[in-house]
Write a structure and sequence with these properties.
This protein has 251 residues and is of the alpha+beta class. It has one domain: q2cbj1_9rhob like domain (Jelly Rolls, Sandwich), CATH 2.60.120. Helices cover 25% and strands 26% of the residues. The strands form three sheets. Strands 1, 2, 3, 4, 9, 11 and 12 form a seven-stranded antiparallel β-sheet that branches. A three-stranded antiparallel β-sheet has the order 8-5-10, with no helix packed on it. A two-stranded antiparallel ribbon has the order 6-7. It binds fe (ii) ion (FE2).
Length: 251
């Protein structure tokens, strides 16, 4: 807990049951690629977005976030000394092509999760799970100690539209139609979040963003957000799915 509070993130070793979930997802993706004869490295990005959404739905049918929490009881129940959690009801699937094959793609810019939700989102935490071809020099970027940064003191921001349309396929796979560009007031230290065979838990307030995929293979990961149940003030309806954002679980 101290490590999480101090750094804003913590790595958890992927256990045997979680490894099985990951293998299941990999198998599903492998079969899907074969059936549809898709090459994730070469396919055009709008087609990839459509396939990502279909695959995202398929994955959520076989591996629910609830199942993931149950297979990691220790890392949540004992770690937080809580048994009720509000968890995002589905996983987002991220498939990032090699940058050289899709140079127009812009990784998700530095942000906090609070930028996209009500104020109690300050309690939100992220889970990031590697699925395939994830490595350190290719992984999530973050600003060191930024979970402690204060708005207007350490940074300002300006709101801008992205080229993602609200309600579009891209929007449904977790890309934003509006974001906030952070302007840091002091020099910051950018680092990367990754540890082999581990999943990452990090505060939504830790300023983070996607990274260009500099390898030759498409990088695949899943992620979700959650918080301790008692911190949830209400359960927001998700714009895209029209469903409640959080599912409440007891471990
Ligand atoms: Fe994020």
């Amino acid at each position: 807990m101290q490590t999480l509070k101090k750094n804003g993130f913590i790595f958890f070793k992927i256990n045997k049951d979680t490894k099985l979930l990951i293998n299941k997802i990999n198998k599903l993706i492998g079969n899907y690629k074969k059936e549809n004869q898709i090459n994730f490295e070469k396919i055009e990005s709008d087609k990839l977005s459509r396939h990502t959404l279909l695959l995202q739905n398929k994955i959520n049918r076989i591996v629910s976030p609830k199942k993931f929490f149950e297979t990691n009881k220790k890392n949540f129940k004992e770690f937080f000394k809580e048994e009720k959690f509000s968890i995002q009801s589905y996983f987002y699937l991220r498939i990032t092509q090699p940058h050289k094959n899709n140079p127009k793609y812009k990784p998700i810019d530095f942000h906090r999760e609070t930028f996209q939700g009500p104020t109690f989102y300050k309690y939100i935490m992220n889970i990031w799970i590697p699925i395939k071809n994830c490595e350190k020099n290719n992984s999530i970027r973050f600003i060191k100690n930024s979970h402690l940064f204060k708005k207007f003191i350490d940074f300002n921001f300006k709101i801008r539209k992205t080229n993602v349309r609200k309600g579009s396929v891209e929007n449904k796979i977790g890309l934003l139609y509006k974001d906030r560009k952070i302007l840091f007031r002091n020099k910051v230290q950018i680092s990367r979040l990754f540890k082999k065979d581990n999943f990452i838990l990090f505060y939504g307030d830790l300023i983070h963003g996607g990274a260009k995929n500099i390898t030759n293979r498409s990088r695949i990961s899943i992620d979700l957000r959650f918080m301790i149940k008692k911190n949830m003030k209400f359960n927001p309806i998700q714009g895209v799915t029209k469903k409640k954002y959080f599912k409440i679980i007891k471990l």
